[in-house]
C-alpha cells in the first residue's frame, strides 16, 4: 500500500494533494510588464494604452494562473494575431509553443521564471516580422481538452533600429537618439544665400499618434503581410501623407489663398495635424513641402524607422525626366513661360530614412530619399522614393525608386534656350552649378545645421560629379547631346547685398565684362520679380533698360536700388526676389544672361522664460517685438506648441 501511494504521488500533478485530479492551466490575467519592457525596447516615451515592443528583441509577459506552473509537466501554447483576417500561411497568425529553453523557431517563447501561480514568459519576435497591433487571444494547455479560456491582451510591435538583424538597424546611440527618439527639431528654409530655420514639434510619442500611424496604413489599404518591409512601407507613406489621389493626411496649397484652412506657415507641429485628420477623416488644409516632410518624419519615427527632414536649396523640379532644367527666351530676351514646365524652388524639404535595400544590388544600404510632397506621379500615384543616396550621388538613375527625379533635384544642369522667329530652339548657355546647394538637416544632438551635400553629390565641377551627370543624362528621357557654341565675349553677373531685412532698400549690382579686343554695344534689361519659394512668379516689381558701351577688355558695373515700396505689396512669407538680367550684344547678336535669387531676412522673436519651468505648474514667457516697417501690421497672431503641452495656444494681437 505504501508503495502504491508513492507511485501515485510521482504520477500526480496536483499541488494540493497527491490524489486530487489535475486541473487544466487557466490564465486569469496577463501583464505586459510595461515598465521593464519599455525601457529595454526604448519605448518608454509612448503615451499609449497598449504595450509597445520592438521586433527581433525579447519582451516579457507575466501570466497569473489558476495554479502553479510545473515546467517539467505542464505545456502551453500561445496564439498571436495581427490584422483583421489573420492567417497562419501569411504570417499574421502565429501559434507559439512555450518551451523551457529557447527554441530555434523564428518566433519563440520560453519560461523565464515561475513564482507560485505567476509565470513569466520571454517572447521574441523575428527581426523581419510584420509591424502592427498584435493580439494574444488564447493560451492552450495540452493537458486540457480544447482551448483553455484566456484573457486577451494587445501590444504593438515596431521596427527595431537597435536590432542588428532588422533591416532598419542603425549603429551609434547618438544617431538613434536623434533620428528615432528626438521629438523636436529644426526645419531649414529660406534660400541658399540666407538659410533660416523653423522649430517643429514632431511629437511621435504623444497620445494617439502611434494609433493614427497604423490607421494611415489601414487607410492606404497596404496589405498587413507587407508591413514588415520598410522599403514598401515608406513608399506607401509618401503617398498617404498627401491627399492628391487617396484622401491622405494633408492637402497641398501653394496659391497664397488659404480660406477654409490653416496657412502652412502657421503649423508648429505634427500632432495637431494628425489628430485633426483622425477626427475628421478627411485631408487637413493646408500643407507645403516642409509640413509634408515634418509629418512624415513623425510617422516614420513613431513606427521605428530612423528618419530626418532634409532641405535642398535651389531645388530643381524636372517635369519631363530629361534631367535638365530648361529655360526659354525669345530673341528680345523675354522669358517664354508658356513653353516651360520645369522650375527651381528656393528650397524644398523632403526626408531621408535609414534602411537596407535587399531589393537592389549590394552597396546601396543606408540613407534613402523619400518625398511626400505631391510633385510628379510614380507608378500612377503621387509618391516618391525610396532612392538610395549612393545611387543619386553616382547618377545611377536606373535604380528604384524615382532616382531620376531626385537626381535632377540636386544635380541637373540648367539649360537656356533661344527661340527664334521660326519657332526653333537653340541652346546658348548651360549653368552646371544651378541646383543642389547646402543640403541641410539638423545635426545629431540638435547642435545646429549639418550640411549633407556630400552624401547627395560629388564636389561641384569635379570629374566624379561630371561623370555622374553624364551617366544620369544618358538614361534620361531625352538622352541627347547638347552642342553649345561659346561665341560670346561679353559676360554678365548679378548680385545683391547680403543680409537685407524685409522692408529695407535692396541694392543690386550688375557686372559686365568685355573680353574682346573691340568695343561692344549692348542692350541690357534688368527685371526683378517676387517669386514664391517654388520658383513661380508672383509679380514683377521693377524693370529697367540700359543701352551700354563696353570698352575693349574692360569691366563695367551698374548699381540699382529696389525700394521697399516696389516689393512690399507682393512680398509674403517664404517669398524671394529674383533678379534676371538679359541682353544682346549688337555686334555679334549673341545673348547675355544671368539670374540671381535672394531671400530677405526676417526679424527674430526673442523669448525669455521668467523663472524656472516646473512640471504641472504654470510658467511665464516674455516676448518682445518691434514693427520695423513704415506701416502698421494687421491680423497679427501668436501661436505656441511644444512637447508635453496639453494644448497649444493661439493669441490674436490685432
TrEMBL record:
<feature type="active site">
    <location>
        <position position="348"/>
    </location>
</feature>
<dbReference type="InterPro" id="IPR036985">
    <property type="entry name" value="Transglutaminase-like_sf"/>
</dbReference>
<keyword id="KW-0808">Transferase</keyword>
<dbReference type="InterPro" id="IPR001102">
    <property type="entry name" value="Transglutaminase_N"/>
</dbReference>
<feature type="binding site">
    <location>
        <position position="411"/>
    </location>
    <ligand>
        <name>Ca(2+)</name>
    </ligand>
</feature>
<dbReference type="InterPro" id="IPR002931">
    <property type="entry name" value="Transglutaminase-like"/>
</dbReference>
<protein>
    <recommendedName>
        <fullName>protein-glutamine gamma-glutamyltransferase</fullName>
        <ecNumber>2.3.2.13</ecNumber>
    </recommendedName>
</protein>
<dbReference type="InterPro" id="IPR038765">
    <property type="entry name" value="Papain-like_cys_pep_sf"/>
</dbReference>
<dbReference type="Pfam" id="PF00868">
    <property type="entry name" value="Transglut_N"/>
</dbReference>
<dbReference type="Pfam" id="PF01841">
    <property type="entry name" value="Transglut_core"/>
</dbReference>
<dbReference type="GO" id="GO:0046872">
    <property type="term" value="F:metal ion binding"/>
</dbReference>
<keyword id="KW-0106">Calcium</keyword>
<feature type="binding site">
    <location>
        <position position="460"/>
    </location>
    <ligand>
        <name>Ca(2+)</name>
    </ligand>
</feature>
<comment type="similarity">
    <text>Belongs to the transglutaminase superfamily. Transglutaminase family.</text>
</comment>
<dbReference type="InterPro" id="IPR036238">
    <property type="entry name" value="Transglutaminase_C_sf"/>
</dbReference>
<dbReference type="InterPro" id="IPR008958">
    <property type="entry name" value="Transglutaminase_C"/>
</dbReference>
<dbReference type="InterPro" id="IPR013783">
    <property type="entry name" value="Ig-like_fold"/>
</dbReference>
<feature type="active site">
    <location>
        <position position="289"/>
    </location>
</feature>
<dbReference type="InterPro" id="IPR014756">
    <property type="entry name" value="Ig_E-set"/>
</dbReference>
<feature type="domain" description="Transglutaminase-like">
    <location>
        <begin position="281"/>
        <end position="374"/>
    </location>
</feature>
<dbReference type="InterPro" id="IPR050779">
    <property type="entry name" value="Transglutaminase"/>
</dbReference>
<feature type="active site">
    <location>
        <position position="371"/>
    </location>
</feature>
<keyword id="KW-0479">Metal-binding</keyword>
<dbReference type="GO" id="GO:0003810">
    <property type="term" value="F:protein-glutamine gamma-glutamyltransferase activity"/>
</dbReference>
<dbReference type="Pfam" id="PF00927">
    <property type="entry name" value="Transglut_C"/>
</dbReference>
<feature type="binding site">
    <location>
        <position position="465"/>
    </location>
    <ligand>
        <name>Ca(2+)</name>
    </ligand>
</feature>
<dbReference type="InterPro" id="IPR013808">
    <property type="entry name" value="Transglutaminase_AS"/>
</dbReference>
<feature type="binding site">
    <location>
        <position position="413"/>
    </location>
    <ligand>
        <name>Ca(2+)</name>
    </ligand>
</feature>
<keyword id="KW-0012">Acyltransferase</keyword>
<dbReference type="InterPro" id="IPR023608">
    <property type="entry name" value="Transglutaminase_animal"/>
</dbReference>
